[in-house]
């Protein structure tokens, strides 16, 4: 995550302005490549700023199939959350395989006090 700087603050402000005006709702999603070009930064910076905004509670949703957008409905936000959870679980599954351990052990589910 980037520390706050005038440049990052500018990118965040510009990002939120662009999304609010042009990309509200899943039907109006935009790819990271296009959004980065419009905002004036590289894709890595864009994704970092989006992550920071999400951590602040701003409902920037998106999937590879929809692109990024401001969630307009609870259903759009839920679809994004389900995508993020599935992606995280996939990554954890790979980690469990690399460690040669069951996913449940990796998650600590078998070691909870009963």
Short description:
The chain is mainly alpha-helical and 114 residues long. It has helices at 6-22, 32-39, 43-55, 74-99, 103-107; strands at residues 60-63, 67-70.
Secondary-structure element series: HHHEEHH
Uncertain regions spanning at least 5 consecutive residues: none
CATH architecture identity? Orthogonal Bundle
Q: Please state the average pLDDT score.
A: 92
CATH superfamily: Winged helix-like DNA-binding domain superfamily/Winged helix DNA-binding domain
Helical segment count: 5
Question: Rough shape?
Answer: elongated
Strand order of the largest sheet: 1-2
Strand content: 5-15%
Radius of gyration using CA atoms only = 17 Å
Number of strands: 2
- In helices, the fraction of residues equals 55-70%
Domain module tally: 1
CATH class: Mainly Alpha
Largest sheet: 2 strands, antiparallel
- Distance N to C terminus: 37 Å
The CATH topology is given as Arc Repressor Mutant, subunit A
Overall structural class, as computed from helix and strand content, comes to mainly alpha
Q: How would you characterize the overall build of this protein?
A:
The chain has 114 residues and is mainly alpha-helical. The chain has a single domain, classed as Winged helix-like DNA-binding domain superfamily/Winged helix DNA-binding domain (Arc Repressor Mutant, subunit A), CATH 1.10.10.10. Helices cover 61% and strands 7% of the residues. It is built from five helices and two strands; from the N terminus they run αααββαα. It has a two-stranded antiparallel ribbon with strand order 1-2. A hairpin with a 3-residue loop joins β1 and β2. α1 crosses α3 and α2 packs across α3. It is elongated, with a radius of gyration of 17 Å. The termini are far apart. The model has no long low-confidence stretch (mean pLDDT 92).
């Amino acid at each position: 995550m980037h520390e706050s700087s005038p440049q990052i603050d500018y990118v965040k402000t510009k990002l939120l302005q662009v999304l609010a005006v042009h990309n509200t709702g899943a039907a109006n999603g935009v790819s990271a490549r296009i959004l980065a070009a419009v905002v004036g930064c590289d894709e890595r910076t864009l994704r970092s700023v989006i992550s920071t905004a999400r951590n602040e509670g701003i409902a920037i949703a998106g999937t590879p199939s929809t692109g990024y957008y401001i969630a307009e409905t609870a259903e759009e936000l839920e679809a994004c959350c389900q995508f993020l959870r599935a992606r995280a679980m996939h990554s954890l599954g790979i980690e469990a395989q690399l460690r040669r351990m069951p996913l449940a052990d990796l998650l600590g589910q078998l070691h909870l006090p009963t």
